[in-house]
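Changelog-adjacent note: as of this version, every example in the card shows the full chain rather than a window. The one below runs 215 residues end to end.
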Amino acid sequence: MEDYLSVALPKGRLGEKVLQLFKKAGIADIDIEKAGRKLCIEDEAAKLRFILVKPYDSAVFVERGAADVGVCGYDVLAEQHSDVYELLDLGFGKCAMCVAAPKGFVDANAGPLKVATKYANAAEEYFSSKGRDIDVIKLNGSIEPAPMLGLSDVIFDIVETGSTLRENRLEVVEKAFDVSARFIANKASYNFRNKEIRTIADRLAKAAAEMQEQN
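Full-length structure tokens:
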């Protein structure tokens, strides 16, 4: 068990894409459907142990050493300021962290801008870089209704297609940064198991590039 390299694998669509990439790279071939309710799945041939976690928790497992490597969105790294090595941009799960507001909104700059978001730290950092004072309204569920109900002036959130914004009469007014899936490593693990981790990262990079060319 101890010689297995552990991988924090986000559940859901992102995790499925990660497993497809591992398979394409010839690193491991895991069938999530056959795993049932198991949260730890091992590939004996590859000596890899996949730990299924919520996407927002992946970086925590890696940072704290519960997993040697893992995959998470850049939004998570930006929000948590995770103390990990970011080894590779996998090139999928692409979207953007944006500021969105009701159509026609103009920031009068008459006081702190009320910002509804799940990403309080990232929002504070972004608006601070612009010299804009904000009042963060931390929400954990849907944030799109916040401006319509007078709870906030704008929202700060991930935008993929923009359809949810349009349905709630919002539009993007600024893009803060791009988001995509990142391959990350625990710092101690990277130092002690550098050859294994670098080999995986290099093979993933090659497979990811091939997948992007095909798309």
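Structural remarks: The chain has a mean pLDDT of 92.
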